[in-house]
Amino acid sequence: MNIDLDSLRKLLCERLCEDVKVESRPDGALMLRTRFQFPDGDRFPIHLSEAPAGGFRLSDRGHTLMHIGYEHDVDSFLDGTRRTLLERIMGESELQWDDGAFCLDTAPERLPEAIFRFGQALTRVHDLTLLSRSSVGSTFYDDLAGLLSRLVDEDRFQPDYRPDVPNAEAYPVDYRIEGKGDVPLFLYGVPNRDKARLTTIMLSHFHRHGLPFESILVFENQAEIPRLDLARLSNVGGDMISSLEAREDLDRKLVQRIAA
Q1: Which residue has the higher pLDDT, 184 or 130?
Q2: DSSP secondary structure, 178-197, as one string
Q3: Are 219 and 194 in contact (CB under 8 A)?
Q4: Which residues make Cβ contacts (< 8 Å) with residue 213, sequence separation at least 6?
Q5: Which tens digits make up the pLDDT trace of 192-206?
Q6: Can you list the domains of the chain with their CATH numbers?
Q7: Residue 207 pLDDT greater than 60, yes or no
Q8: Are 38 and 129 in contact (CB under 8 A)?
Q9: Count of Cβ atoms closer than 10 Å to residue 216 Cβ
Q10: Can you tell me the distance from the alpha carbon of 239 to that of 215, in angstroms, rounded to the nearest whole number?
């Protein structure tokens, strides 16, 4: 195959120039139009201005987090596992944080490279939202902890609780919450089949030793738990919350069972 390098270079230059445009907004601000876009088709708004130390500054003016906030809780997004990954992305891409906006400063001669690096970085940031739906499941407990802290005062629940039963170290409770009538409420996060089976064993152990308690089981996705495992768990467990998206259901059931 014979490739005409001169023609190829000319074609790439023309097409790339067509795909990156500079527009002036009514307020005088400059915006770059590129092919970078969110999954729903909205283009990344990349604003161009003078950097405080000279050169150019690229900024999304907070639009990336606003876009994420349409379907996700931004406070949870900026905490736990996602926060660690976000900081790694920012370090690798040289992103800066400016009052809710992602920005990147660059010398004028490096602007073309910076545009592509900035667009790639914002894509990686938005892709962190996929972690909550991926098989990795590493953010489930972070999300559960964040949700619980917003529903219950922190001084009223205890994570990683060891109840007063034989061999207590082998039967930890994800969260102990003060219940009504001196009966504690045990809350477990159940992200998968293995945790469903383990929770069944632990709750059965508590019942066998006459431990007074009530329980709430919060699933990452209840529909993914095999029916037999779910049936066994329902025999020993209390209320079930199908997923973290059912926040109103969790709030209502917590209010019914925690001490006033």
Answers
A1: 184
A2: -BGGG--EEEEEE-SHHHHH
A3: no
A4: 163, 179, 183, 184, 185, 186, 206
A5: 999 999 999 999 999
A6: 5-133 (no CATH), 140-257 (3.40.1350.10)
A7: yes
A8: no
A9: 20
A10: 6
